[in-house]
Amino acid sequence: MTTITNNREEALIVKEQDVVPLRNRVKEYGVKIGMSILNQTKLITATSELVRNLLKYGGGGKVIIESVSNGRDNGVRVTFIDNGPGIADIALAMKDGYSTGKSLGLGLPGTKRLVNEFDIKSELGNGTTVTITKWKNG
Amino acid sequence: MERIPILKMGQYLLVTIQVDLYDQLAENLESDLINTISKHSSKGVLIDISAVSIIDSFMGRILGNIAVMSKIMDAQTVVVGMQPAVAITLVELGLSLNGVISALNVERGMELLRSKMHNSDNEEPEYDDDNE
Amino acid sequence: MQNNSLMGLKEHENKLLTIWSQILQDSGAGDGAMEEEESKEFASLFLSALEKSGNFDEFEKVEDLIIGIASSRGKRGFSPRENAQYLISFKQAASKVISELITDSAELYDANLKLNEILDNMMIMTFEAFMKGREDIISRQVDEISEISTPVISVWEGIVALPIIGTLDSSRTQVVMENLLQQIVDTGSSIAILDISGVPAVDSLVAQHLIKTVSATRLMGAECIISGIRPEIAQTVVHLGIDLTGIITKASLASALRTAFDMLQLNVVKRKVIG
Hints:
- The complex is a heterotrimer of chains A (138), B (132) and C (275).
- Chain A is an alpha+beta fold.
- Chain A has helices spanning 19-32, 37-56, 90-93, 107-114; strands at 4-13, 61-69, 74-82, 117-123, 127-135.
- The longest helix of chain A has 20 residues, at 37-56.
- Chain A starts with a strand and ends with a strand.
- Chain B has four helices and five strands, in the order E-E-H-E-H-E-H-E-H.
- In chain B, strands 1-2-3-4-5 form a five-stranded mixed beta sheet, sandwiched between helices.
- Residues 124-132 of chain B have low confidence and may be disordered.
- The interface between A and B is medium-sized, with 27 and 22 residues.
């Protein structure tokens, strides 16, 4: 199924204070397509988790927010791009209970459960890109 | 520096979080609250999160920390007014906020605090002040 | 589209219609009166479009019409095969008329090719429309089912009950949780009873969904009791090694209600008859 992007914007995330405005922007995208409160909450919580990773492990980076459509449903897609050290073992990072930082260690797998699509690409030394999509009726 | 106000109501403290927290604000709240408990020897803390639309793992950890820290200082923390969407999201995320006691609203939270204090008074008479 | 012979088809509209309805009847893909009107409209619009060919707006109209026909046929219960047959037979009829009109074989070949191209394209559209018509029905039914199957009942001041009928999958759990938690907030209830008498089987996935619902209820500051645990459910739960120890479970709704009364420090006593 092809996905069409209807609207798109980018934000630079370099400090902790950028988190709340970003969450609000993502929420606005959800509101615009009529997403339910629950799905909005899941989406912005996932965004919050990932942007925190972006700051903590990637030293900041770029976030792309898109309003997407697959012909059947509308959704919001958020992409997190950092140029940090990258993740050595993605499979391990996706396991429940794993964490290298001082967080609770449910970052990635927990976040994955909140969204409909979750894609992670990482190369050691070349940063990490995480893309999440939440469909309106997903 | 922005801060979340902490209200003193007799033996209890009431915190109403009206804004979405960013990390520094949450960390400030944690230390402010613990200091205030110590200053007034408060017996209970009510944290009203009915206006909070998102709790991620960091915020969850702060709430858990506050609950445990205040417990050590002999104050009971009750989190009140969590939104249904927030509760479901926390469960999906895998956070059950162990150690945090919750109540539906401020009123229920207050009842809960009173009953907890009442119970602990009965159970531990050796610490009881008879002239109260 | 410079083909003159295709444009001439309009003059033979009646003949085409007769042949078409004959083929439709023979193949059993027709359904009589209602269809005749549709077919007439379609043939007329299609042939007019051919006549004015080169003007793509005309064909758009035809496409809209055939999409409408296809989805309405879908709703009337035609199979996709019968739906395809509808257009295929139109094509057969049209090429039959053309073959009588055109004698030059190269010209006939061109005309048929053109006709095929247009109608095949429409066939694809009808398939899509047919599928979409069905999907609309399905999604509407899904909505209806999830709405009617999760009623939240206020059984006492401060106690709500939710009987679950049918299997609990993740999307259903989501609806159940949302309804239950919203009701808890609206009624200010501190106890929720989840009755699973109507759940056919509890496997580890269903159990996980139940546990999630209980956790979410507790996060809100209410307690959740699960009732309606049949003996075979208790057996499978233990055999599967599912841990339900953190959850208050009761065999029947009645005993769950009794527990809820206890928690609220309520007493139900029989009235003493004086005298």
